[in-house]
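Hi W., the zinc ion complex you wanted:
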Amino acid sequence: MATGTVIYKCSCGAYHPWKFDGDCRDKDNRYSSPEEYAEENNLDPDDIEVRAIDAEDGEVDDDEDDDDDDDDEGGEGD
Ligand SMILES: [Zn+2]
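Structure:
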């Protein structure tokens, strides 16, 4: 399994899972640190990737991987 877990630092000051798209006050989806996220989810902190959000230009982030790239799983970034 090469796929890392992606979380992001929110403007609310907490970390959320990358796919999280809900209320920042949702305690189940907010973490004070990547380490806490790892701990809560029984993950290795080294597998957590903190990504910046830069999609504030109204871009719809559909979750479909339908582009015709080759099937590398989680291979972005080294
Ligand atoms: Zn938030």
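The pocket of zinc ion is lined by residues 10, 12, 14, 16, 24 (CB under 6 Å).

W.
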